[in-house]
């Protein structure tokens, strides 16, 4: 069976050495030495100032909203994984959807401007499939309207924009280190926080709001990463360059072979790519279904990312409509994409897809 993605498992002996270390010192969670080590290494590797590790990418978003004190309305994209929107709703914030650019698949800055009201406290944008947003326009709009900016950078590990990490834009960027991601720690996530003064607050928030044995200044939660997850992260980080170059090969073969058959995502020319996904847009939903059926019959399972468009979620009131996002979400499929996808298997996927078209 070939799935849309496959978890990268690093060398078992190396992981076992970390497990031995954990057993020796008996420290399994609560900001242990491996979490601290991973934070340090990731900050250096990614070129960011402050990084706070957490238990997953969804709580990273929630902690970001609470750290910045977001309330009221937040302008966001309807074309993302459901956690981008549901994390707002569970924190009592109303998502106001701004439609996307049909080529880049990212939020359209013109639509952001139209969606801003006096109740808007922030813009929550996503670097969809690792394609950097128009960070400069978003920054300018935020400045003009005095809004905070959060980037859901769950897909944007190791992406640079104009020579620096894309994670440095906005007030806070969040990452997901779920097992399916380019870089992972089994489950996990992170916040990249630009304002040094807010880092301490985020650290309290991930630990029940506790400052010390006698003070609990904030309403917090439990969002801590544990030592076994950090150990996995450290092992995967050692191999990240290898992982990326293997993925690049997969990406290039798809690009060369499928050019002219399907529409590709238009990449930000000022940014690097991390080869984390391979989305293809078909002419119609019928065409997509035909391809999906043909692949499924051969035990190959691409995913309809992102479907449905989040402006159709039943729990969002009042109802909103983003026609471009709805249209694209019906016609987009992410093809299998991972470091050890065999060339023969990939060629088989390509042949089946072309045949179905
Ligand atoms: C864009 C986006 N945001 C948020 C998340 C949530 O991350 P996690 O699964 O680590 O909670 C994901 C996860 O896949 C995602 O793709």
Keywords:
seven-stranded mixed sheet, binds pyridoxal-5'-phosphate, Aspartate Aminotransferase, domain 1, alpha/beta, three-stranded antiparallel sheet, Aspartate Aminotransferase, domain 2, 357 residues, 12 helices
Chart the SSEs and their pairings:
Blueprint (H helix, E strand, L loop, with lengths): L1 E2 L8 H14 L7 H14 L4 E4 L2 H12 L4 E4 L5 H8 L4 E4 L11 H7 L4 E7 L8 H11 L2 E5 L7 E2 L2 E2 L6 E5 L12 E5 L2 H10 L21 H12 L1 H19 L4 E2 L14 E3 L3 H13 L2 E2 L21 H9 E3 L8 H14 L1
The chain binds pyridoxal-5'-phosphate.
Q: How would you characterize the overall build of this protein?
A:
- This protein has 357 residues and is of the alpha/beta class.
- The chain folds into two domains: 2-238, Type I PLP-dependent aspartate aminotransferase-like (Major domain) (Aspartate Aminotransferase, domain 2); 240-356, Aspartate Aminotransferase, domain 1 (Alpha-Beta Complex).
- The chain contains twelve helices and 14 strands.
- It has a seven-stranded mixed β-sheet, sandwiched between helices. Strands 11-12-14 form a three-stranded antiparallel β-sheet. A two-stranded parallel sheet has the order 1-13.
- It is globular.
- Bound molecules: pyridoxal-5'-phosphate.
- Pyridoxal-5'-phosphate is lined by residues 56-58, 80-81, 83-84, 126, 152, 154-155, 176, 178, 189.
């Amino acid at each position: 069976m070939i799935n849309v993605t496959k978890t990268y498992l690093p060398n078992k002996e190396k992981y076992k050495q970390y497990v031995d270390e954990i057993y020796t010192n008996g420290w399994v969670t609560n900001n242990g030495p491996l979490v601290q080590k991973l934070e340090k290494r990731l900050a250096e590797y990614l070129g960011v100032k402050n990084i706070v590790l957490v238990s997953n990418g969804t709580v990273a978003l929630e902690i970001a909203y609470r750290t910045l004190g977001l309330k009221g309305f937040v302008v966001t994209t309807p074309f993302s994984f459901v956690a981008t929107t549901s994390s707002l709703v569970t924190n009592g914030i109303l998502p106001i959807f701004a439609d996307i650019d049909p080529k880049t698949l990212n939020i359209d800055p013109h639509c952001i401007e139209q969606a801003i009201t006096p109740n808007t406290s922030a813009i929550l944008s996503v670097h969809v499939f690792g394609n950097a947003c128009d960070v400069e326009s978003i920054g300018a709009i935020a400045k003009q309207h005095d809004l905070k900016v959060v980037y859901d950078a769950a897909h944007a590990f190791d992406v640079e924009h104009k020579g620096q990490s894309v994670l440095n834009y906005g007030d806070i960027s969040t990452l997901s280190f779920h097992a399916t991601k380019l870089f992972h720690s089994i489950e996990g996530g992170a916040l990249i926080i630009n304002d040094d003064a807010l880092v301490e607050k985020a650290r309290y928030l991930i630990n029940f709001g506790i400052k010390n044995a006698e003070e609990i200044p904030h309403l917090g939660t439990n969002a801590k990463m544990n030592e076994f997850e950090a150990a996995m992260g450290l092992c995967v980080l050692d191999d990240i360059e290898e992982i990326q170059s293997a993925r690049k090969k997969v990406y290039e073969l798809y690009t060369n072979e499928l050019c002219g058959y399907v529409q590709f995502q238009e990449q930000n020319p000022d940014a690097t790519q991390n080869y984390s996904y391979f989305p293809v847009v078909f002419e119609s939903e019928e065409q997509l279904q035909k391809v999906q059926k043909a692949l499924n019959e051969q035990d190959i399972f691409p995913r309809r990312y992102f479907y449905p468009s989040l402006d159709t979620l039943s729990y969002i009131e009042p109802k909103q409509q983003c026609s471009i996002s709805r249209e694209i979400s019906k016609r987009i499929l992410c093809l299998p994409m991972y470091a050890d996808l065999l060339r023969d298997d990939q060629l088989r996927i390509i042949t089946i897809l072309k045949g179905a078209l």
